[in-house]
Design goal:
The protein has 278 residues and is an alpha+beta fold. 18% of the residues lie in helices and 25% in strands. It has 6 helices and 14 strands. The protein has an 8-stranded mixed β-sheet with strand order 1-12-7-14-5-4-3-2. The chain is globular and about 55 Å long. Bound molecules: fe (ii) ion. Fe (ii) ion binds next to loops.
């Protein structure tokens, strides 16, 4: 990254890098995700929604930190519980260890370019803590309300950032990202933690609402990488358009930080978060 790009990232809390990955690399991930969904046999249905996030924190979700698991769109079902459309058009996302468990995602996630990017952003020993494949399905793609990623992946000190790869063009119509420029200076508002009696809860530090009038849309082309500071407030709106908006996200922490046991996302001792070494 250039000094100018770094300064921009420090100022805004995000940075948009067009053409960071090739169209072919995007298509490889898309094809692999399609295959995975086709092979997925839903034995139990787990929904991802930011509307009632603590209620939907079932064991399937809580145990997904070091697995590949599938979460449905909230609006995918009829009142009787059956799917309104085929399985392929009903999945909200796949998470949260694609980068470790699937060779195609592993290859995409562990490139020298990404290692260098982490070093530029002040993470000399980066660990990949989470990956998600997000479908933002046509017509039923749910909104993701305004949040900071550090709410979900808290570290002490706070040394974490997210990467958001556009695997398709993302725009106003199909539910692109929106961010509050410089909003990363507003402080951490909450943490999403494991509750003592099971499930999850939000630990709230600051009740003031986000200044959502300051949100700007990040309309980007396929192949663009958006870097998100861990404290940057961002959201995406519903997708009511006939087109999907696939994206792949990766979250990095530094090996030097403390990753609390209270964070919702945990990995088993047999499969700790790994960096770029094989
Ligand atoms: Fe996020």
């Amino acid at each position: 990254m250039t000094l100018e790009q770094l300064a921009q990232y420090e100022r805004d809390g995000f940075l948009v890098l067009p053409d960071f990955v090739s169209a072919e690399a995007c298509d490889r991930l898309r094809a692999r995700a399609k295959e995975m969904v086709r092979e997925f046999e839903p034995h139990n249905i787990s929904i991802f929604s930011t509307h009632e996030q603590t209620r939907t924190s079932d064991d399937y979700f809580l145990g997904s930190g070091d697995k590949i698991r599938f979460f449905f769109e909230e609006n995918a079902f009829r009142p009787d519980g059956s799917l309104k459309q085929d399985k392929e058009r009903s999945i909200n996302k796949i998470g949260h260890a694609l980068h470790d468990l699937d060779p195609v995602f592993d290859e995409f996630s562990h490139t020298p370019e990404l290692k260098q990017l982490a070093a530029d952003l002040g993470l000399p020993n980066p660990l990949l803590i989470q990956s998600m494949y997000i479908f933002k399905q046509p017509r039923i793609g749910g909104e993701v309300s305004c949040h900071q990623d550090a709410t979900f992946l808290y570290t002490e000190p706070l040394r974490m950032f997210g990467l958001w790869f556009a695997l398709e063009d993302a725009n106003f119509e199909n539910g692109c990202l929106w961010a509050i420029p410089a909003g990363h200076r507003l402080g951490l508002k909450s943490r999403f933690v494991r509750a003592d009696k099971g499930g999850t809860r939000f630990e709230v530090f600051d009740e003031t609402p986000w200044p959502e009038d300051k949100l700007v849309p990040l309309e980007v082309r396929k192949g663009t990488l958006i870097i998100l500071h861990g404290l940057l407030p961002h959201l995406s709106r519903e997708n009511r358009s006939p087109r999907s908006r696939h994206a792949y996200t990766l979250h990095f922490i530094d090996a030097s930080v403390d990753y609390p046991a209270s964070n919702w996302l945990q990995r088993s001792a047999e499969m700790p978060a790994r960096g770029f070494q094989k």
